[in-house]
Amino acid sequence: TDITRSMKLPIFFLFFQNCLTNNLFEVNKELLEKFVRVNHSDVKKPQCNFYILKLRSWIKMLGTDPLFFENPFANFKAVKTLALDIPRACQQKKYRKSNSNPSKEHVQSSVEMILEIMYTYDIETEKMFDSIPKIDASDCFVFCSLALDYSEEEEADESTFSLAKKFFEKGKSLMKQLPEEGSNIRNEKLMKRAAESLKDIGNWINYKNLCTGYKVTHSKNVNGICKTMVTPSLRVAKVEVLNEDPLVEVYEDFLSPKELDEFSSELSTYTFEPGLASNEDGTNDNVTFKMQKDIYNVDNKVVDEIQKIFDDLTGLLPDVEDYTQVIKYRPGGQFSPHLDFYTEDQLDPDDELGNRVGHAMIFLQDVELGGGFAMPELGIYVSPSPGRMVHWRNVDINGENAPLSLHGGCRVYSGNKQVAIKDYHQPFQKHWVCREQV
Fold first, then answer.
1. Residue 211: left if φ>0, alpha if ψ -120 to 50, beta else—which one?
2. Pairing relation of β-strands 407-409 and 373-375?
3. Could you point out which of 52, 68, 198, 236 has its C-alpha 20 to 30 Å from the C-alpha of 81?
4. What is the pLDDT, as a whole number, of residue 152?
């Protein structure tokens, strides 16, 4: 009862304590004393001295309450302090390699257990904050980042995201309320890292919700500005503007049924190659869920004519060596949310093509289930339909890279998806930069 009372936790922890402690890193008096000895020579460093004093207070407390850190909320605070805070503050690295010392993985385990407790027993958020001894901003940001540290993005769930966001807001609140928290440079770095995790996982969840929540074309920003336009070649196009900056448009009946049949006949003469998927390090790996083929306009008259229609409707100029990429997706195939513009660091000064500023993608056939196109930052979903074309810009109206252009191809659940995509690059698009930066 002393543990429950001191941590302001419900009585059920008494019954589950033995089960929980089997999965927690054991924090005891001997471990804390060892950390004090190792770092004693660094007490002249203000931050290090702060943590040494904290450890000594914990050692004294364990003299009367030896099971205090068997509670998962208190355990998180202690393991995070030992594994992450002290090594940075005291600049001691040698003891972190020991199996007898806690690591980042042990902090992760504490976070996962707290998440499980929160979901199982529906604990109020404020009670949870009160249960972490003298919670500070770094506790909140570390918890947020580790809660969202999935081995696979598809494991992300809205409940964990919502809880992580509450920890993030608590950390920001503490930084505003307490001068010492707000002036801490490490807190700024931890907050930035946590904010990036929230953004990435939030976009992934939005992407999944768009892909599974809509069956027809949708945009959260506008109901769709519809217009009929006549191109310079006198081709009539029905256009729906889903977003104005960065521009996202949907063209209905981009290709007629006859044109689709002709294109499909041409594609049947090509041998498709295993598709590629990008890794985080920028390398590509072959995958089994898609096949692809790059077809250059000089090699095929039908493709050349379709590329001219792309250029005519979008108002963009083709690259010197122009090609269309055709991709076939099998069930299970998807293209995770990504950005297609190039940063200055990614561009070679001698690159004649320049930045990838826009795309045009046409659906070539029906998909039984799934296979749409989603832009999570803009809340846009486009359903697959033969002849429907999506045109989007990777840059804003000033020609600057637009992170809001994040986009992805939704998972195919049944049937096959086939699309043709054309890229447009910067050196040939100067005419559509509408205004100078203010």
1. alpha
2. antiparallel
3. 198
4. 75
> What is the distance between the alpha carbons of residues 379 and 217, in angstroms, rounded to a whole number?
11
pLDDT at residue 10 tops 50: no
Measured in degrees and rounded to the nearest 5, phi and psi for residue 58 equal -70, -40
Residue type, 141: F
What gap in Å lies between CA 387 and CA 326, rounded to an integer? 14
CA of 271: how far to CAs of 277, 329, 416, 417, in Å?
A: 19, 15, 17, 17
Which residues lie below 8 Å from residue 67, measured CB to CB, with a gap of 6+? 3, 17
Element (H, E) at 311: helix 301-314
Q: Which pLDDT tens digit goes with each residue over 60-92? A: 999 999 999 998 999 999 999 999 999 888 876
Round to whole Å and give the CA distance between 161 and 194. 11
Closest CA to 290 of 328, 261, 347, 335: 328
- Plot region of 108 (φ>0 → left; ψ -120 to 50 → alpha; else → beta): alpha
- Both tokens of 435, joined, read 């205004």
Lowest mean pLDDT among 21-30, 48-57, 245-254: 21-30
Q: Hey, how many other C-beta atoms are within 10 angstroms of the C-beta on 260?
A: 19
CB 229 within 8 A of CB 356: no
Query: Crossing angle for the helix pair 72-80 and 137-147, nearest 10 degrees?
Result: 100
Residue 352: its pLDDT value, please? 72
- The Cα 234–Cα 232 span in angstroms is 5
Global pTM reads 0.84
Inter-helix orientation angle 46-62/29-39, to 10°: 160
| Cβ atoms 138, 85 nearer than 8 A | yes
For 147-205, the pLDDT digits (tens) are: 999 877 778 889 999 999 999 999 999 999 988 887 889 999 999 999 999 999 999 99
How many residues are there in the chain?
A: 438
Three-class SS state of 95: helix
Q: How far apart are CA 69 and CA 20, in angstroms?
A: 11
